Amino acid sequence: MELREAATAQxxxxxxxxxxxxxxxxxxxxxxxxxxxxxxxxxxLSLANLYxxxxxxxxxxxxxxxGGHASIPCGNFFLRSLTEIYAGLAxxxxxxxxxxxxxxxxxxxxxAWEQKYCRLEVHDTPLCELPDFGDYRTLADRSIGHAMxxxxxxxxxxxxxxxxxYKNCESFFRHYLIARQLHDDAHDxxxxxxxxxxxSVAALVLTRFKEKYSEDGTTPNAAIAxxxxxxxxxxxxxxxxxxxxxxxxHIAQARRTRQxxxxxxxxxxxxxxxxxxxxxxxxxxxxRNEALVFLSDYMA
Length: 300
Prior knowledge:
By secondary structure, the chain is mainly α. The chain has one domain: Orthogonal Bundle (Farnesyl Diphosphate Synthase), CATH 1.10.600.10. It is built from eleven helices and no strands. Helix 3 runs antiparallel to helix 4 (72-90), helix 3 runs antiparallel to helix 7 (148-156) and helix 5 runs antiparallel to helix 7 (148-156). The longest helix has 33 residues, at 228-260. The chain is globular. The relative contact order is 0.10. The model has no long low-confidence stretch (mean pLDDT 86).
């Protein structure tokens, strides 16, 4: 009883309700295409999305060292509940079993990679080896569980994993999740660095810092906190533009993928979420302009 009460309290604190509505949004799209997914299946997928989101946030806080360890029993409860739902659904659509296993593998592999390559030791300086995020697929894989509900729903509706609609849906989420994580990283990179975490944007800032100061052989071998003013300056003078352009690019790719899908495009699937990210990117450029004015006045 105590664990269930704690889990209920965790759910009540949840701020992002959108993720639980995705199966309903996709059901509307399927209905317009003449495919009907039973409402009880959609309700189970929605509940599974909720459990998955809660487990993700708890484990993410714990992995980041943000004091989430006390909530791990709740995270385990949500993960068990999620697993039970998908095990039950797999009896009706066997392909769901593989979808669940593959999705969990992607999440676990992404978290393992991050723990191995994106954590600084106490003695590390800007001269240390930095993680290579490549095409940012790892960013999507960390939270690809958010796509599992809609993908499972497509399997129930008869769309196989080789179908264009299934591939378009998976691609849409990959680009959306990359854009979303880059957006978050652009806001959190300073706090993450101070807690010895190197997120995707911090990696860009530190790489540019090393390049800039190695040109004249004066790269300071100092603690992150000491060189933070120089890092902020690099961020506002160039990295923010690179991050925003990449975010906008992935939003555009998500929309292009959606347009290729007669199913998703019919309901402008998750358009409100894409617009939020666009608005955030535009606001970041405004902040950039204000920061550059401040830096110009400060350095004058």
